[in-house]
Amino acid sequence: MITREDVIHISKLAKVELKEDEIEKFREGFQNILEYFNILDEVEEDVEPTFQVLPLKNVFREDEPKKSLEQVKVLMNAKHVEEGYFKGPRVVE
Amino acid sequence: MLTISDWKEKVEREGARDSIDELIERIKKSKLNAFITINEDCLRDVEKFDNGELKGKLAGIPVAVKDCITTEGLLTTCGSKILHDYIPPFDAHVVERLKAEGAIIVGKTNMDEFAMGTTTETSYYGVVRNPHDLERVAGGSSGGSGACIAAEESILSLGSDTGGSIRCPASFCGVVGLKPTYGLVSRYGLIPYANSLEQIGPFAASVDDLALLLEVIAGPDERDSTNARREFKYNPKERKNLRIGVIKEMGGNDYVMSSFEEVVEVIKKHHTVGEVSMPSFKYALAAYYIIAMSEASSNLARYDGVRYGLSDETLSSWNVFFSKVRAEGFGDEVKRRIMLGSYALSAGYYGKYYLKALKVRTLVVRDFKRALDDFDLLIAPTMPALPFKIGELADPLTMYKADVNTVPINLAGVPSLSLPIFERKGLPVGMQIIGNYFEENSILSFAKWLEKEIKAVS
Q1: Is B400 in CB contact (< 8 Å) with chain A?
Q2: How confident is the model over B161-201, as pLDDT tens digits?
Q3: Residue spans of alpha helices (H) in B33-113
Q4: A76 in a domain, yes or no?
Q5: Which of residues 210-229 of B touch A (CB under 8 A)?
Q6: What stretch of H or E contains B171?
Q7: Where does B4-217 sit in CATH, by number?
Q8: Which residue from A84, B224, B290, B306 has the highest number of Cβ atoms inside 10 Å of its Cβ?
Q9: What is the number of domains present in chain A?
Q10: How far is the alpha carbon of B71 from chain A, nearest alpha carbon, in Å?
Q11: Each residue's pLDDT tens digit, B394-432
Protein backbone atom coordinates (compact mmCIF):
# COMPACT_ATOMS: atom_id res chain seq x y z
CA MET A 1 0.00 0.00 0.00
CA ILE A 2 1.41 3.37 -1.06
CA THR A 3 0.55 6.11 1.41
CA ARG A 4 0.44 9.89 1.13
CA GLU A 5 3.69 10.00 3.10
CA ASP A 6 5.33 7.63 0.60
CA VAL A 7 4.40 9.94 -2.27
CA ILE A 8 5.82 12.96 -0.46
CA HIS A 9 9.02 11.00 0.26
CA ILE A 10 9.30 9.88 -3.41
CA SER A 11 8.71 13.42 -4.69
CA LYS A 12 11.56 14.62 -2.49
CA LEU A 13 13.87 11.91 -3.86
CA ALA A 14 12.99 12.97 -7.40
CA LYS A 15 13.16 16.70 -6.55
CA VAL A 16 9.69 17.46 -7.85
CA GLU A 17 7.53 19.74 -5.71
CA LEU A 18 3.94 18.46 -5.58
CA LYS A 19 0.84 20.51 -4.92
CA GLU A 20 -1.64 19.29 -2.34
CA ASP A 21 -4.16 18.02 -4.92
CA GLU A 22 -1.47 16.22 -6.94
CA ILE A 23 -0.46 13.97 -4.06
CA GLU A 24 -3.61 11.82 -4.10
CA LYS A 25 -3.67 11.67 -7.90
CA PHE A 26 -0.11 10.33 -8.07
CA ARG A 27 -0.68 8.02 -5.09
CA GLU A 28 -3.47 6.20 -6.88
CA GLY A 29 -1.41 5.83 -10.07
CA PHE A 30 1.66 4.60 -8.14
CA GLN A 31 -0.46 2.04 -6.33
CA ASN A 32 -1.80 0.55 -9.59
CA ILE A 33 1.52 0.57 -11.40
CA LEU A 34 3.56 -0.88 -8.52
CA GLU A 35 0.95 -3.59 -8.03
CA TYR A 36 1.41 -4.50 -11.67
CA PHE A 37 5.21 -4.52 -11.25
CA ASN A 38 4.80 -7.17 -8.55
CA ILE A 39 4.30 -9.68 -11.36
CA LEU A 40 8.10 -9.95 -11.32
CA ASP A 41 7.87 -11.71 -7.94
CA GLU A 42 6.71 -14.76 -9.90
CA VAL A 43 10.09 -15.07 -11.63
CA GLU A 44 12.10 -17.62 -9.71
CA GLU A 45 15.00 -18.34 -12.02
CA ASP A 46 18.09 -16.46 -10.87
CA VAL A 47 20.35 -15.26 -13.69
CA GLU A 48 22.96 -12.54 -14.17
CA PRO A 49 21.45 -9.07 -14.78
CA THR A 50 21.78 -7.47 -18.24
CA PHE A 51 22.69 -3.78 -17.96
CA GLN A 52 23.32 -3.36 -21.67
CA VAL A 53 23.14 -5.72 -24.63
CA LEU A 54 26.33 -5.12 -26.62
CA PRO A 55 29.56 -6.98 -25.81
CA LEU A 56 31.35 -3.66 -25.23
CA LYS A 57 33.78 -3.02 -22.42
CA ASN A 58 35.81 0.05 -21.46
CA VAL A 59 35.47 1.99 -24.68
CA PHE A 60 38.04 4.78 -24.77
CA ARG A 61 39.21 7.20 -27.41
CA GLU A 62 42.79 8.30 -27.96
CA ASP A 63 43.89 10.76 -25.31
CA GLU A 64 44.30 13.66 -27.70
CA PRO A 65 43.09 17.18 -26.92
CA LYS A 66 40.19 18.27 -29.09
CA LYS A 67 38.34 21.53 -29.48
CA SER A 68 35.30 21.79 -27.25
CA LEU A 69 32.37 24.19 -27.46
CA GLU A 70 33.21 27.89 -27.11
CA GLN A 71 32.36 29.41 -23.73
CA VAL A 72 29.80 31.77 -25.23
CA LYS A 73 27.93 28.85 -26.79
CA VAL A 74 28.02 26.86 -23.58
CA LEU A 75 26.45 29.75 -21.68
CA MET A 76 23.93 30.81 -24.31
CA ASN A 77 21.00 28.90 -22.82
CA ALA A 78 21.60 29.84 -19.17
CA LYS A 79 19.36 32.42 -17.46
CA HIS A 80 21.80 33.31 -14.68
CA VAL A 81 25.35 34.03 -15.88
CA GLU A 82 28.07 36.04 -14.15
CA GLU A 83 31.53 36.80 -15.52
CA GLY A 84 31.54 33.83 -17.84
CA TYR A 85 30.21 31.37 -15.24
CA PHE A 86 26.87 29.69 -14.65
CA LYS A 87 25.30 31.13 -11.53
CA GLY A 88 23.39 28.57 -9.48
CA PRO A 89 21.27 28.67 -6.34
CA ARG A 90 22.79 28.48 -2.86
CA VAL A 91 23.85 24.96 -1.92
CA VAL A 92 24.47 25.61 1.79
CA GLU A 93 21.38 26.71 3.67
CA MET B 1 2.58 9.42 -49.71
CA LEU B 2 5.59 10.59 -51.67
CA THR B 3 8.69 8.45 -52.15
CA ILE B 4 12.12 9.88 -52.86
CA SER B 5 11.71 9.19 -56.58
CA ASP B 6 8.26 10.89 -56.59
CA TRP B 7 9.90 13.90 -54.98
CA LYS B 8 12.74 13.99 -57.48
CA GLU B 9 10.26 13.87 -60.37
CA LYS B 10 8.27 16.65 -58.79
CA VAL B 11 11.38 18.81 -58.40
CA GLU B 12 12.34 18.06 -62.00
CA ARG B 13 8.86 19.20 -63.11
CA GLU B 14 8.12 22.13 -60.79
CA GLY B 15 11.51 23.18 -59.44
CA ALA B 16 12.94 22.75 -55.94
CA ARG B 17 11.84 26.15 -54.68
CA ASP B 18 8.16 25.68 -55.56
CA SER B 19 8.14 22.10 -54.33
CA ILE B 20 9.55 23.07 -50.91
CA ASP B 21 7.30 26.13 -50.67
CA GLU B 22 4.29 23.91 -51.30
CA LEU B 23 5.44 21.43 -48.66
CA ILE B 24 6.04 24.15 -46.03
CA GLU B 25 2.66 25.67 -46.87
CA ARG B 26 1.04 22.27 -46.33
CA ILE B 27 2.71 21.95 -42.90
CA LYS B 28 1.53 25.43 -41.92
CA LYS B 29 -2.08 24.71 -42.90
CA SER B 30 -2.12 21.18 -41.50
CA LYS B 31 -4.56 20.10 -38.81
CA LEU B 32 -2.25 17.28 -37.68
CA ASN B 33 0.14 19.28 -35.43
CA ALA B 34 3.00 17.06 -36.61
CA PHE B 35 5.60 19.83 -36.28
CA ILE B 36 6.69 21.90 -33.29
CA THR B 37 9.10 24.04 -35.31
CA ILE B 38 9.44 24.73 -39.03
CA ASN B 39 13.01 25.33 -40.19
CA GLU B 40 12.70 28.68 -41.98
CA ASP B 41 16.39 28.43 -42.93
CA CYS B 42 15.59 25.53 -45.24
CA LEU B 43 14.91 28.00 -48.05
CA ARG B 44 18.63 28.81 -47.99
CA ASP B 45 19.32 25.11 -48.53
CA VAL B 46 16.99 25.15 -51.53
CA GLU B 47 19.07 27.96 -53.02
CA LYS B 48 22.19 25.90 -52.46
CA PHE B 49 20.50 22.93 -54.08
CA ASP B 50 19.56 25.03 -57.11
CA ASN B 51 23.18 26.21 -57.36
CA GLY B 52 24.38 22.62 -57.32
CA GLU B 53 26.03 23.05 -53.90
CA LEU B 54 24.04 20.35 -52.10
CA LYS B 55 25.56 16.98 -52.86
CA GLY B 56 25.14 13.49 -51.49
CA LYS B 57 22.75 10.59 -51.15
CA LEU B 58 19.93 12.84 -49.91
CA ALA B 59 20.63 15.96 -51.96
CA GLY B 60 17.53 18.15 -51.91
CA ILE B 61 15.35 15.59 -50.09
CA PRO B 62 13.14 16.96 -47.28
CA VAL B 63 13.76 15.29 -43.92
CA ALA B 64 11.91 16.00 -40.65
CA VAL B 65 13.70 15.43 -37.35
CA LYS B 66 12.10 14.42 -34.06
CA ASP B 67 12.36 17.17 -31.50
CA CYS B 68 14.49 15.15 -29.07
CA ILE B 69 17.38 15.21 -31.58
CA THR B 70 19.53 18.32 -31.28
CA THR B 71 19.86 20.69 -34.23
CA GLU B 72 22.36 23.54 -33.96
CA GLY B 73 20.63 26.91 -33.86
CA LEU B 74 17.16 25.37 -34.25
CA LEU B 75 14.74 25.19 -31.31
CA THR B 76 14.72 21.70 -29.72
CA THR B 77 12.02 21.26 -27.06
CA CYS B 78 11.79 17.48 -26.62
CA GLY B 79 8.03 18.07 -26.38
CA SER B 80 8.53 19.67 -22.97
CA LYS B 81 7.89 23.03 -21.36
CA ILE B 82 11.21 22.71 -19.54
CA LEU B 83 13.06 23.06 -22.89
CA HIS B 84 10.60 25.55 -24.42
CA ASP B 85 13.41 27.94 -25.42
CA TYR B 86 16.40 25.58 -25.81
CA ILE B 87 18.59 26.41 -28.80
CA PRO B 88 21.22 23.64 -29.06
CA PRO B 89 24.80 24.82 -29.63
CA PHE B 90 25.63 21.64 -31.57
CA ASP B 91 24.22 19.09 -34.03
CA ALA B 92 23.48 15.47 -33.18
CA HIS B 93 25.59 12.92 -35.07
CA VAL B 94 22.61 11.96 -37.23
CA VAL B 95 21.97 15.61 -38.10
CA GLU B 96 25.62 16.07 -39.12
CA ARG B 97 25.18 13.01 -41.34
CA LEU B 98 21.95 14.38 -42.92
CA LYS B 99 23.63 17.70 -43.67
CA ALA B 100 26.73 15.98 -45.08
CA GLU B 101 24.50 14.08 -47.53
CA GLY B 102 22.66 17.20 -48.69
CA ALA B 103 19.30 16.66 -46.97
CA ILE B 104 16.96 19.61 -46.42
CA ILE B 105 15.80 19.66 -42.79
CA VAL B 106 12.24 21.00 -42.95
CA GLY B 107 11.50 21.07 -39.24
CA LYS B 108 11.27 19.43 -35.84
CA THR B 109 8.47 16.98 -35.21
CA ASN B 110 6.05 16.79 -32.32
CA MET B 111 6.44 14.02 -29.74
CA ASP B 112 5.41 12.85 -26.31
CA GLU B 113 7.23 14.85 -23.63
CA PHE B 114 10.75 13.36 -23.37
CA ALA B 115 9.46 10.49 -25.54
CA MET B 116 7.37 9.22 -22.61
CA GLY B 117 4.12 8.10 -24.16
CA THR B 118 2.38 5.98 -26.77
CA THR B 119 0.00 8.56 -28.27
CA THR B 120 1.81 11.97 -28.38
CA GLU B 121 -0.83 13.14 -25.90
CA THR B 122 1.82 13.95 -23.28
CA SER B 123 3.41 16.59 -25.56
CA TYR B 124 3.37 20.11 -24.06
CA TYR B 125 2.62 21.25 -27.62
CA GLY B 126 -0.58 19.24 -28.07
CA VAL B 127 -1.53 15.88 -29.56
CA VAL B 128 -0.58 14.80 -33.10
CA ARG B 129 -3.69 13.76 -35.03
CA ASN B 130 -3.82 10.69 -37.23
CA PRO B 131 -3.79 11.52 -40.96
CA HIS B 132 -6.30 8.69 -41.57
CA ASP B 133 -8.79 9.91 -38.92
CA LEU B 134 -8.37 13.25 -37.15
CA GLU B 135 -10.21 12.01 -34.04
CA ARG B 136 -7.54 9.38 -33.49
CA VAL B 137 -3.93 9.60 -32.33
CA ALA B 138 -0.96 9.22 -34.64
CA GLY B 139 0.80 7.05 -32.07
CA GLY B 140 3.84 7.87 -30.02
CA SER B 141 6.19 8.90 -28.98
CA SER B 142 7.44 9.89 -32.47
CA GLY B 143 3.88 10.81 -33.56
CA GLY B 144 4.93 13.80 -35.65
CA SER B 145 7.60 11.84 -37.52
CA GLY B 146 5.08 9.15 -38.48
CA ALA B 147 2.21 11.51 -39.37
CA CYS B 148 4.35 13.84 -41.53
CA ILE B 149 5.25 10.99 -43.90
CA ALA B 150 1.64 9.80 -44.28
CA ALA B 151 0.43 13.37 -44.88
CA GLU B 152 3.17 14.30 -47.38
CA GLU B 153 4.51 16.94 -45.00
CA SER B 154 7.97 15.40 -45.44
CA ILE B 155 9.59 12.68 -47.54
CA LEU B 156 11.73 11.14 -44.81
CA SER B 157 11.91 11.57 -41.04
CA LEU B 158 13.86 10.52 -37.99
CA GLY B 159 12.40 9.29 -34.75
CA SER B 160 13.67 7.56 -31.64
CA ASP B 161 12.48 4.25 -30.21
CA THR B 162 12.87 3.42 -26.53
CA GLY B 163 10.00 0.94 -26.24
CA GLY B 164 8.18 1.21 -29.57
CA SER B 165 8.24 4.95 -30.24
CA ILE B 166 9.10 4.54 -33.93
CA ARG B 167 7.16 1.35 -34.66
CA CYS B 168 3.92 2.48 -32.97
CA PRO B 169 3.44 5.67 -35.04
CA ALA B 170 4.65 3.85 -38.17
CA SER B 171 1.91 1.27 -37.55
CA PHE B 172 -0.81 3.84 -36.72
CA CYS B 173 0.05 6.13 -39.66
CA GLY B 174 0.61 3.39 -42.26
CA VAL B 175 4.28 4.13 -42.97
CA VAL B 176 7.51 2.14 -42.66
CA GLY B 177 9.59 2.63 -39.50
CA LEU B 178 12.65 0.89 -38.12
CA LYS B 179 14.23 0.55 -34.71
CA PRO B 180 17.82 -0.40 -35.58
CA THR B 181 20.02 -2.75 -33.56
CA TYR B 182 21.16 -1.08 -30.34
CA GLY B 183 24.47 0.63 -31.15
CA LEU B 184 24.11 0.86 -34.96
CA VAL B 185 23.20 4.57 -34.90
CA SER B 186 25.07 7.01 -32.67
CA ARG B 187 23.00 8.52 -29.86
CA TYR B 188 25.25 11.61 -29.68
CA GLY B 189 22.83 14.54 -29.55
CA LEU B 190 19.77 12.43 -28.75
CA ILE B 191 18.32 13.93 -25.58
CA PRO B 192 18.42 10.89 -23.29
CA TYR B 193 15.43 9.18 -21.70
CA ALA B 194 16.58 5.57 -21.18
CA ASN B 195 20.07 5.14 -22.64
CA SER B 196 20.32 1.36 -22.59
CA LEU B 197 17.07 0.95 -24.57
CA GLU B 198 16.81 3.77 -27.10
CA GLN B 199 17.93 4.12 -30.68
CA ILE B 200 17.40 6.74 -33.37
CA GLY B 201 15.78 5.32 -36.50
CA PRO B 202 14.22 6.18 -39.85
CA PHE B 203 10.64 6.59 -41.16
CA ALA B 204 9.75 6.54 -44.86
CA ALA B 205 6.98 5.84 -47.37
CA SER B 206 8.80 2.80 -48.76
CA VAL B 207 11.31 0.17 -47.67
CA ASP B 208 13.94 1.34 -50.19
CA ASP B 209 13.71 4.94 -48.97
CA LEU B 210 13.97 3.81 -45.35
CA ALA B 211 17.07 1.76 -46.15
CA LEU B 212 18.76 4.72 -47.81
CA LEU B 213 18.15 6.91 -44.75
CA LEU B 214 19.52 4.14 -42.51
CA GLU B 215 22.69 4.01 -44.63
CA VAL B 216 23.14 7.74 -44.02
CA ILE B 217 22.62 7.77 -40.24
CA ALA B 218 24.31 4.48 -39.26
CA GLY B 219 28.04 4.32 -38.70
CA PRO B 220 30.88 4.80 -36.23
CA ASP B 221 30.97 7.72 -33.80
CA GLU B 222 33.38 7.82 -30.88
CA ARG B 223 31.24 10.38 -29.02
CA ASP B 224 28.74 7.61 -28.15
CA SER B 225 30.54 4.97 -26.10
CA THR B 226 27.78 2.43 -26.84
CA ASN B 227 28.21 2.88 -30.59
CA ALA B 228 29.02 -0.42 -32.31
CA ARG B 229 31.46 1.21 -34.79
CA ARG B 230 29.76 -0.40 -37.77
CA GLU B 231 28.60 0.87 -41.14
CA PHE B 232 25.36 -0.22 -42.76
CA LYS B 233 25.13 -1.04 -46.48
CA TYR B 234 21.78 -1.92 -48.09
CA ASN B 235 22.02 -4.82 -50.47
CA PRO B 236 18.51 -6.23 -51.00
CA LYS B 237 18.41 -9.94 -51.81
CA GLU B 238 15.23 -11.82 -52.55
CA ARG B 239 15.47 -15.12 -50.73
CA LYS B 240 13.03 -18.00 -51.08
CA ASN B 241 11.84 -20.30 -48.36
CA LEU B 242 12.95 -18.41 -45.28
CA ARG B 243 11.98 -19.77 -41.87
CA ILE B 244 9.56 -17.20 -40.42
CA GLY B 245 8.53 -17.46 -36.75
CA VAL B 246 5.23 -16.04 -35.51
CA ILE B 247 5.65 -14.94 -31.89
CA LYS B 248 2.85 -16.58 -29.92
CA GLU B 249 2.90 -14.07 -27.05
CA MET B 250 2.40 -11.01 -29.29
CA GLY B 251 -1.23 -10.69 -30.25
CA GLY B 252 -3.92 -8.12 -30.87
CA ASN B 253 -7.64 -7.51 -31.09
CA ASP B 254 -9.80 -9.09 -33.82
CA TYR B 255 -9.17 -6.35 -36.40
CA VAL B 256 -5.41 -6.55 -35.94
CA MET B 257 -5.32 -10.34 -35.92
CA SER B 258 -7.46 -10.72 -39.05
CA SER B 259 -5.10 -8.38 -40.92
CA PHE B 260 -2.06 -10.19 -39.53
CA GLU B 261 -3.43 -13.61 -40.43
CA GLU B 262 -4.15 -12.42 -43.95
CA VAL B 263 -0.52 -11.38 -44.39
CA VAL B 264 0.72 -14.67 -42.91
CA GLU B 265 -1.18 -16.44 -45.72
CA VAL B 266 0.67 -14.29 -48.27
CA ILE B 267 4.03 -15.14 -46.65
CA LYS B 268 3.21 -18.86 -46.51
CA LYS B 269 3.12 -19.10 -50.31
CA HIS B 270 6.88 -18.54 -50.48
CA HIS B 271 8.26 -19.23 -47.02
CA THR B 272 7.97 -21.67 -44.13
CA VAL B 273 5.98 -20.20 -41.26
CA GLY B 274 6.06 -21.68 -37.75
CA GLU B 275 5.07 -20.58 -34.25
CA VAL B 276 7.57 -19.67 -31.55
CA SER B 277 6.89 -19.18 -27.85
CA MET B 278 8.74 -16.62 -25.71
CA PRO B 279 7.82 -17.39 -22.07
CA SER B 280 9.75 -14.42 -20.63
CA PHE B 281 7.50 -11.93 -22.44
CA LYS B 282 4.92 -12.27 -19.68
CA TYR B 283 7.32 -10.21 -17.56
CA ALA B 284 8.82 -7.99 -20.28
CA LEU B 285 6.41 -5.07 -19.94
CA ALA B 286 6.96 -4.68 -16.20
CA ALA B 287 10.72 -5.12 -16.58
CA TYR B 288 10.82 -2.59 -19.40
CA TYR B 289 8.95 0.09 -17.45
CA ILE B 290 11.06 -0.39 -14.34
CA ILE B 291 14.31 -0.06 -16.31
CA ALA B 292 13.06 2.86 -18.44
CA MET B 293 11.78 4.77 -15.40
CA SER B 294 14.95 4.11 -13.43
CA GLU B 295 17.17 5.35 -16.23
CA ALA B 296 14.86 8.33 -16.75
CA SER B 297 15.03 9.36 -13.10
CA SER B 298 18.80 9.59 -13.35
CA ASN B 299 18.89 11.15 -16.84
CA LEU B 300 16.37 13.87 -16.14
CA ALA B 301 18.30 15.04 -13.07
CA ARG B 302 20.15 17.30 -15.54
CA TYR B 303 17.13 19.63 -15.71
CA ASP B 304 18.13 21.80 -12.79
CA GLY B 305 17.27 25.21 -14.25
CA VAL B 306 20.92 26.29 -14.23
CA ARG B 307 22.53 25.50 -17.60
CA TYR B 308 19.56 25.50 -19.96
CA GLY B 309 15.79 25.40 -20.08
CA LEU B 310 13.16 26.76 -17.75
CA SER B 311 14.56 28.59 -14.73
CA ASP B 312 13.35 30.73 -11.88
CA GLU B 313 13.91 34.46 -11.44
CA THR B 314 15.11 34.00 -7.88
CA LEU B 315 18.17 31.94 -7.09
CA SER B 316 16.83 30.65 -3.78
CA SER B 317 18.29 27.63 -2.01
CA TRP B 318 19.27 24.66 -4.19
CA ASN B 319 16.55 22.25 -3.04
CA VAL B 320 13.74 24.79 -3.35
CA PHE B 321 14.96 26.12 -6.71
CA PHE B 322 15.51 22.66 -8.23
CA SER B 323 12.15 21.23 -7.07
CA LYS B 324 10.23 24.33 -8.16
CA VAL B 325 11.73 24.49 -11.67
CA ARG B 326 10.96 20.81 -12.23
CA ALA B 327 7.42 21.06 -10.85
CA GLU B 328 6.80 23.90 -13.27
CA GLY B 329 8.61 22.46 -16.30
CA PHE B 330 7.66 18.77 -16.36
CA GLY B 331 4.25 17.36 -17.26
CA ASP B 332 2.45 14.67 -15.25
CA GLU B 333 3.73 11.63 -17.15
CA VAL B 334 7.35 12.75 -16.85
CA LYS B 335 6.88 13.43 -13.13
CA ARG B 336 5.28 10.02 -12.70
CA ARG B 337 8.15 8.21 -14.41
CA ILE B 338 10.99 10.01 -12.67
CA MET B 339 9.30 9.57 -9.29
CA LEU B 340 8.67 5.86 -9.85
CA GLY B 341 12.22 5.49 -11.17
CA SER B 342 13.63 7.18 -8.08
CA TYR B 343 11.53 4.82 -5.97
CA ALA B 344 12.67 1.69 -7.87
CA LEU B 345 16.30 2.69 -7.32
CA SER B 346 15.91 3.73 -3.69
CA ALA B 347 17.28 1.85 -0.68
CA GLY B 348 15.24 -1.25 0.07
CA TYR B 349 13.61 -1.50 -3.38
CA TYR B 350 16.60 -1.80 -5.72
CA GLY B 351 16.66 -5.61 -5.52
CA LYS B 352 12.89 -6.03 -5.73
CA TYR B 353 12.40 -3.83 -8.78
CA TYR B 354 15.47 -2.66 -10.68
CA LEU B 355 17.79 -5.65 -10.27
CA LYS B 356 14.93 -8.08 -10.83
CA ALA B 357 13.99 -6.27 -14.03
CA LEU B 358 17.57 -6.56 -15.30
CA LYS B 359 17.45 -10.29 -14.64
CA VAL B 360 14.21 -10.60 -16.61
CA ARG B 361 16.05 -8.74 -19.37
CA THR B 362 18.56 -11.60 -19.47
CA LEU B 363 15.68 -14.06 -19.91
CA VAL B 364 14.23 -11.97 -22.75
CA VAL B 365 17.63 -11.87 -24.52
CA ARG B 366 17.84 -15.64 -24.13
CA ASP B 367 14.37 -16.18 -25.61
CA PHE B 368 15.29 -14.09 -28.66
CA LYS B 369 18.57 -15.98 -29.11
CA ARG B 370 16.77 -19.30 -29.02
CA ALA B 371 14.03 -18.17 -31.40
CA LEU B 372 16.54 -16.70 -33.86
CA ASP B 373 18.48 -19.97 -33.87
CA ASP B 374 15.34 -21.73 -35.10
CA PHE B 375 14.02 -18.99 -37.42
CA ASP B 376 15.55 -16.49 -39.85
CA LEU B 377 13.09 -13.75 -38.95
CA LEU B 378 10.28 -13.29 -36.43
CA ILE B 379 6.96 -11.55 -37.06
CA ALA B 380 4.15 -10.16 -34.89
CA PRO B 381 1.57 -7.37 -34.96
CA THR B 382 3.23 -4.05 -34.06
CA MET B 383 0.35 -2.71 -31.98
CA PRO B 384 -2.38 -4.80 -30.36
CA ALA B 385 -5.13 -2.40 -31.51
CA LEU B 386 -6.08 0.06 -34.24
CA PRO B 387 -5.11 3.72 -33.65
CA PHE B 388 -6.69 4.86 -30.39
CA LYS B 389 -9.27 7.63 -30.14
CA ILE B 390 -7.83 10.78 -28.59
CA GLY B 391 -8.30 10.47 -24.81
CA GLU B 392 -8.94 6.72 -24.89
CA LEU B 393 -5.78 5.84 -22.93
CA ALA B 394 -6.16 8.33 -20.08
CA ASP B 395 -5.12 5.81 -17.42
CA PRO B 396 -1.30 5.49 -17.35
CA LEU B 397 -1.15 1.72 -16.80
CA THR B 398 -3.61 1.15 -19.68
CA MET B 399 -1.32 3.23 -21.89
CA TYR B 400 1.77 1.26 -20.80
CA LYS B 401 0.03 -2.00 -21.68
CA ALA B 402 -0.44 -0.84 -25.29
CA ASP B 403 3.35 -1.26 -25.66
CA VAL B 404 3.23 -4.99 -24.92
CA ASN B 405 4.36 -6.06 -28.42
CA THR B 406 7.11 -3.50 -28.85
CA VAL B 407 9.08 -3.34 -25.57
CA PRO B 408 10.67 -6.82 -25.60
CA ILE B 409 12.64 -5.79 -28.70
CA ASN B 410 14.26 -2.87 -26.86
CA LEU B 411 15.10 -5.03 -23.84
CA ALA B 412 17.04 -7.36 -26.15
CA GLY B 413 18.41 -4.63 -28.46
CA VAL B 414 17.53 -6.50 -31.66
CA PRO B 415 16.29 -4.63 -34.76
CA SER B 416 12.59 -4.48 -35.67
CA LEU B 417 10.81 -2.90 -38.62
CA SER B 418 7.12 -2.00 -38.75
CA LEU B 419 5.57 -2.52 -42.18
CA PRO B 420 2.02 -1.45 -43.13
CA ILE B 421 -0.12 -4.53 -43.88
CA PHE B 422 -3.86 -4.75 -44.66
CA GLU B 423 -6.10 -1.92 -43.44
CA ARG B 424 -9.10 -2.51 -41.22
CA LYS B 425 -12.02 -0.06 -40.91
CA GLY B 426 -10.04 2.28 -43.16
CA LEU B 427 -7.21 2.43 -40.61
CA PRO B 428 -3.65 1.19 -41.01
CA VAL B 429 -2.30 -1.94 -39.32
CA GLY B 430 1.41 -2.64 -38.90
CA MET B 431 3.47 -5.80 -38.63
CA GLN B 432 6.88 -6.10 -37.00
CA ILE B 433 9.70 -7.94 -38.72
CA ILE B 434 12.37 -8.79 -36.16
CA GLY B 435 15.86 -10.09 -36.93
CA ASN B 436 19.11 -10.92 -35.20
CA TYR B 437 21.61 -8.25 -34.12
CA PHE B 438 22.85 -6.20 -37.12
CA GLU B 439 20.65 -8.24 -39.53
CA GLU B 440 18.94 -5.07 -40.82
CA ASN B 441 19.71 -6.10 -44.41
CA SER B 442 17.78 -9.38 -44.05
CA ILE B 443 14.82 -7.56 -42.47
CA LEU B 444 14.77 -4.90 -45.19
CA SER B 445 15.12 -7.47 -47.99
CA PHE B 446 12.16 -9.44 -46.67
CA ALA B 447 10.14 -6.24 -46.06
CA LYS B 448 10.83 -5.08 -49.64
CA TRP B 449 9.55 -8.39 -51.00
CA LEU B 450 6.47 -8.37 -48.76
CA GLU B 451 5.70 -4.72 -49.54
CA LYS B 452 5.49 -5.68 -53.21
CA GLU B 453 3.35 -8.78 -52.51
CA ILE B 454 0.90 -6.80 -50.35
CA LYS B 455 0.55 -4.16 -53.07
CA ALA B 456 -0.17 -6.90 -55.61
CA VAL B 457 -2.95 -8.40 -53.45
CA SER B 458 -4.56 -5.09 -52.33
Answers
A1: yes
A2: 999 999 999 999 999 999 999 999 999 999 999 999 999 99
A3: 42-50, 93-100
A4: no
A5: 222, 225-226, 228
A6: helix B167-173
A7: 3.90.1300.10
A8: B290
A9: 1
A10: 14
A11: 999 999 999 999 999 999 999 999 999 999 999 999 999
